[in-house]
TrEMBL record:
One of its GO terms (biological process) is fungal-type cell wall biogenesis. This is chitin deacetylase. One of its GO terms (molecular function) is metal ion binding. It comes from Hypsizygus marmoreus (White beech mushroom). The gene is CDA_0. Its main location: membrane. It is an enzyme of class 3 (hydrolase). Its EC number is 3.5.1.41. Keywords: Carbohydrate metabolism, Cell membrane, Cell wall biogenesis/degradation, Chitin degradation, Cobalt, Glycoprotein, GPI-anchor, Hydrolase, Lipoprotein, Membrane, Metal-binding, Polysaccharide degradation, Signal. Residues 25-48 are annotated as: Disordered. Residues 174-316 form the NodB homology domain. Residues 1-20 form the signal peptide. It is a lipid-anchor; GPI-anchor. It is found in: Cell membrane.
Length: 392
């Protein structure tokens, strides 16, 4: 995780589409661009890599420990977070798997049928032709867009956009989801590494916000049945983004603008094409966008959101939880009122969110639930109701 995200909120760090460079952080390195004056959104032609940056906005409100939150059933705000590097794994690196925390989190997989799939070479199709050839059986999204009934890929109502932004943090009433610690391709990791990636991020969010997400998004959308099963065993439902029947992705490519690969004008043209596709599909949709960079925020605030609102017919914009008619409280373990959402842990141990050996959450006697089976369902339809990511 990036330092600014870790110290501010520990939230989503930016799922991206798989690209030839295979790394959205692979930016051109150069002298920082000159600062811009004012706060107006630049013309679309000016939104490109190297554009002048503006000063960060001033914090407009602070909140005290113990204050109530607007989510029914959620605990009050925790003690303010003070980052100490000694308490956390190295940022932007896969966490060690020999820690006491990971040992505790691995217990959450007990009783679940985790598919015995070998990790991919690097999460790409071109470098793992054997796995790519078996992508349909593996449920590998990267190679062919294969999804399962547990994946969240669209809002159910036509012309409804479940608005989400990877990266964060932002202070305005967003729904929060896990997006891993180091932003690596999860299919290329071992079971223990996947657990560490999800566990540490989940722990960080709970430490800062006092709540634990019940959803996650895999970096680059790189997920298969093994990654799904581990995520669900840890109580997190995967969130993807929409694809058209012919494989077109609802990806704005805004991350490519920040990486110097395309211009803002190119990205906006991609988004306009997305809106055209969204007008003809039978469901709503989820789009891949980011807010870690000023460039991507300018694109969203100045262009993409307005384009959707002024489109004919106009789109209805909602957070993904709202567009799915999911109670906001159900997006977090502490306030979840749905006994079968997500897939509850049935082991005696329950969930140890902090990895300290103390059970934080259990469902039913012995952690079991009548609606749960040992095998996590992965063979359902590809379009389900959307639940949660970071949103406006």
């Amino acid at each position: 995780m990036r330092t600014q995200s870790l110290t501010a909120l520990f939230v989503l760090l930016g799922a991206t589409n798989v690209h030839a460079i295979n790394n959205r952080h692979a930016h051109k390195r150069q002298t920082p661009p000159p600062a811009a004056s004012g706060t107006a959104i630049p013309p679309i032609e000016s939104i490109t890599f190297g554009m002048p940056t503006k000063s960060a906005p001033t914090v407009t409100a602070t909140f005290s420990p113990g204050e109530a939150v607007p989510v029914s059933g959620a605990p009050p705000l925790p003690t303010p977070f003070i980052f100490s590097p000694a308490d956390w794994p190295e940022q932007d690196h896969i966490p060690p798997t020999d820690s006491d925390e990971v040992t505790q989190w691995m217990k959450e997989l007990d009783g679940f049928d985790i598919p015995n799939l070998n990790p991919t070479v690097d999460g790409s199709c071109v470098n793992d032709t054997a796995a790519a050839a078996d992508a349909a059986n593996r449920g590998w999204w990267t190679c062919g867009g294969h999804t399962r009934g547990t994946d969240i890929v669209a809002c159910p109502d036509k012309l409804t956009w479940g608005v989400s932004f990877d990266d964060g943090p932002s202070p305005y009433s967003h729904e929060i989801s896990v997006h891993t610690w180091s932003h690596k391709h999860l299919t290329a990791l071992t079971n223990e590494q996947i657990v560490a990636e999800l566990g540490w991020t989940r722990h960080a969010i709970r430490t800062v916000l006092g709540v634990t997400p019940t959803t996650m998004r895999p970096p680059y959308g790189d997920i298969d049945d093994r990654v799904r099963a581990i995520s669900l065993a840890m109580g997190m439902i995967p969130i993807m983004w929409t694809r058209t029947p012919d494989g077109g992705q609802f990806d704005t490519n805004d991350w490519k603008v920040a990486g110097g690969l395309v211009t803002g004008k190119d990205s906006f043209a991609t988004f306009q094409n997305i809106l055209s596709n969204a007008s003809v599909i039978d469901t709503g949709f989820i789009v891949l966008q980011h807010d870690l960079y000023e460039i991507t925020v300018d694109l969203a605030i100045g262009y993409t959101l307005n384009a959707a609102l002024t489109h004919s017919p106009p789109f209805i914009l909602k957070p993904i939880g709202q567009c799915s008619n999911t109670l906001t409280g159900n997006l977090y373990f502490e306030s979840n009122q749905n006994a079968t959402f997500p897939y509850t842990n049935q082991t005696e141990g329950g969930y140890d969110f902090d990895g300290d050996g103390v059970v934080d959450f259990k469902t039913g006697k012995g952690g079991s639930n009548a609606g749960f089976t040992h095998s996590i369902p992965t063979l359902g339809v590809t379009l389900l109701v959307a639940i949660a990511v970071i949103m406006v």
